[in-house]
Design a protein that fits this description.
The chain is of the alpha/beta class. The chain is built from 15 helices and 17 strands. Helix 2 packs across helix 15, helix 4 packs parallel to helix 5 and helix 13 packs across helix 14. One of its GO terms (molecular function) is 8-oxoguanine deaminase activity.
Amino acid sequence: MKKLMLKNLQHVITCNDNDEILQNVNILIEGNKIKAISKDIVPDRETEIRNCSNLTAIPGFVNTHHHFYQILFRGIPEVQDKPLYSWLSDSYKFWQHLNEEAVYYSSLLAFTELLRTGCTTTADHHYLFPKDISSKLIDIQFDAATQMGIRFHATRGSMSAGKSKGGLPPDILVQSEKEIIEDSIRVIDKFNDNSEFSMRRVALAPSSQISVTLDLMKESRDLARSKGVMLHTHLGETLDEQKYCLEKYGKRPLEIMEEIGWLGEDVWFAHGIWFNDEEIKKLRNTGISHCPTCNMKLGSGICRTSELLESGVKLSIAVDGSASNDGSNMWEEVRRAYLLNKLKYGSNGMTAYDILKTATRGGAEVLGRKDIGSLETGKAADIVLIDLNEVSYAGSHDPIVSIVNLGNSSMVDTTIVNGKVVVRKGKLVKHDEDKINFMARKISKEMVKKGREDT
């Protein structure tokens, strides 16, 4: 079994139960897990030793909400400076040209950005299945994840209520509920692995209350719980969503979720901005993906992060779709989560450490994982190394503040996933970034051109 020792790390920010920050220690990795963290490790002859005397180790970031395909639709002038529903309506004309090759290269590109910015585990909410192309798009994503070596939670998304049924998306982008449930079963049976250190997990994720029926939400709930997988959807993102639900169902969004059994440890929601005090109490043990950049760009609002944590809600940080964020930079999302929290709560808000722990251990808890999210003996070897000796960190006296607030680059030094080095000196170790870049740009231009021709 391969062994790697990270020798004499300047700092190890563990995010363990005791919130320990260790100095000048070694981490021994054996296979895919952390074997020891100590100053006194004596490696054997078979152990690869890396001098890390100038590096700080943190647990890998855990990104709990994304839409990979959107990475090929960034910065389209026609959809800038619009609120969520207008942005979605105008984006669909481009998104309807998605194909299998686009799903593959958008996944590779998203994984590249995430890994280079310290993310070792990511979820993706793929709900777009255009007619006349393969329905096995989740398979393509898993293939890309395996090639890149990232820990991947695919949330099999769905849209069943198109415009003809009062929903927001065009009918060309929705599937029948029979198709959705059948493929959900197939994807779970083929890919989901609930074992310790699993690299592949599946969740079921009807897109939102404006694009699916409540019957599909209920069927997805029953299927997920019978198969032992989690549930995910958008909720509490905008006031428009509230208005839609009140007009159609006579109830607030969370009230609907509560009535159909969509609360608890096996559920997490993206955004979670527009909850009142009573609703926040009901969310205890349910997960929230806080998406600061997207929420700022689309003008959706500010998540009540501190109050959610105080009420026992599981909180994580996520980049959300690249077309509403314009990036998949997980490290930058951590910084913005901190600043947005300070804007809302001032000196009573979360500390830099609170935010860092939310982005690591918090993400693991939201995804229902106990084997990742902290640096401890027996945990998965998902480790990020950061060089805080670069000039932009000079003068800082706290490594955590440095990581969350300082620096003019978000490319980490090293990313280790499941015991394997996948990024070194800010670059992918085994993959051609230039090819990924070229192909993604080519495919993106072709799809956007088609979208413009449709208008």
